[in-house]
Structures are given as C-alpha cells and as structure tokens.
# Entry
Amino acid sequence: MPQDIYQLTGRHCYICIQWDGHRTFDQVKKSVRVDAASEGRCRVKHVDVKGSHYCELFFPLK
# Structure
C-alpha cells in the first residue's frame, strides 16, 4: 500500500485524532505518512471513512 506525506492542514480524517486508520505521525516535521485512500473507523460518527474524507467534526493531531 503506497503512502504519501501530508502536512497538517485541512480537515481531513487522516489528521484527526478520532480516525483509527493506519498512519505514521512525525511530530518534528508536523506531517503524516498515510495512504489517504485507505479506510479507517471514525470514533465520532461510528462509520468507516477514507482518510481523505473532509469532516466538520474535526480534532487535529498536535
């Protein structure tokens, strides 16, 4: 599964603490390595969503 590096911008699930998908967070570089097309479980809505999903119920990684 190819993974890309994304900065902590926007309101996408892959940078939300409530998303249970597979990702790697680099706190020093403030970036996330993730396959944005992969699915994970949203702990707020209790549904499976892709990491690239845009959401208003958003809690960013710090």
